[in-house]
Every structure is written in C-alpha cells, then in structure tokens.
Amino acid sequence: MNAYSIVKAIIKYPFRFFYLIKVEGRENEPDAPYIICGNHSSYVDPILVTVSIRAKPIWIGKKELLKHAFMRWVFRVVGAIPINREGFDTAALRECVGAVKKGACVGIFPQGTRIRKINPEPQQAHAGLALIACMSKATVLPVSIVTKRRQPGIFRRTKIIFHKPVSYEEYTNISENPTKQEITDYIFSKVCAPFDK
Fold it and tell me: What is the CA 57 to chain-centroid distance, rounded?
C-alpha cells in the first residue's frame, strides 16, 4: 500500500462523516483511465470526491499552493500536477495528458478557481478540459458537488453525483467540427444540470 492509499484510508470515513456525504451514481464510475470534471466551490472539493470513488485521482492544482510546506507534501503524496494559471501552461498540459495515457485518473475543476455560493454554469468552464480530453482521447466523468448553500461545510449535507461518463466519441461528435470550448461547455453542462432543479 503506497502513501496515497494510506492517506485516503485514514481520511475517508472522517470526511464522509463530518461532511454528511451522500453519493449518487456510484455505478457510473468507469475503469481508469478517465478524467473527472467537477464544479469547484471549496478547498475540500478534491478530498470530497476522492473519498467517494474507487480511483485515486491525480488532481490539477494551482501552482501558488506550493508556497506552503504542507501543500508541497500533499502534492507529492497524491502526485498532484501544479498548473500556472497565468497564461498557457504547456508543461502541465503535457503532464496531464501523459498521466491519462499511462492509465491514471486525472481530476480537473474547469472553472479554474473556486466559485462560491452561486450555481455553476457551463460558460464558467475553461477550454483546457477539452484540450486534455481530446489529446488523451479519454472518457470524462462529470461530477456534481451539491450542497444547500453551494459550498461544502462541516455537518452540511453534501451530495456527490457521478453522472454517466462521456466518451471521446460522444463529445467529439456533438457537431460537425466542435471547438474545444463547445466540447467543454457540453461536458460541464452535465455537471451543472442538478443545480437547475
């Protein structure tokens, strides 16, 4: 058992207890490799998803977090990929695509930053999601993190919804020649769907 597995085993039940996690669509989790695409409103979002699935996803995180010693340790343990949000980070892009091609599950929050207390909308997502998905030809698993106040909190009911996975063939055939932004909007609209109810 590696360090990631040990950490996940330690935090799994405390997080599921304190955040009152209820999982829907667990049967929709595909076999790796695949890409997780979720909405982002809290620093704990990657943990909430990780403790709710079988896979041990490699998350993409902003490079600024590496300024903190604890976060450097976390990135190293879980193999997280730091990304420079200023400009186009080709090195991080290549690393993400390479991880998927090697059989990993990679987690992305395509909004690019935390958007708190409002409903996620398709146009908030950045086209980098589709770029990574198309280059790796990976299946994408849309995941909705739903809470009453649109932000997870201790003893606040948190619903994690795994939607039906979207295959490479599906998202590349939504139109005759879809742009990367159109593909991203299509995938992320599935993440946003529960918030419209």
Answer: 8
Tally of domains within the chain? 1
CATH number of the domain within which 77 lies: 3.40.1130.10
The one-digit pLDDT tens for each residue of the chain (197 residues) are: 699 999 999 999 999 999 999 999 999 999 989 999 999 999 999 999 999 999 999 999 989 888 889 889 999 999 999 998 777 789 999 999 999 999 999 999 999 999 998 999 999 999 999 999 999 999 999 999 999 888 899 999 999 999 999 999 999 999 999 999 999 999 999 999 999 76
For the beta carbon of residue 169, count every other beta carbon within 10 angstroms.
9
Which residues span the domain enclosing 16? 3-196
Cα 166 to Cα 163: distance, rounded to the nearest angstrom: 9
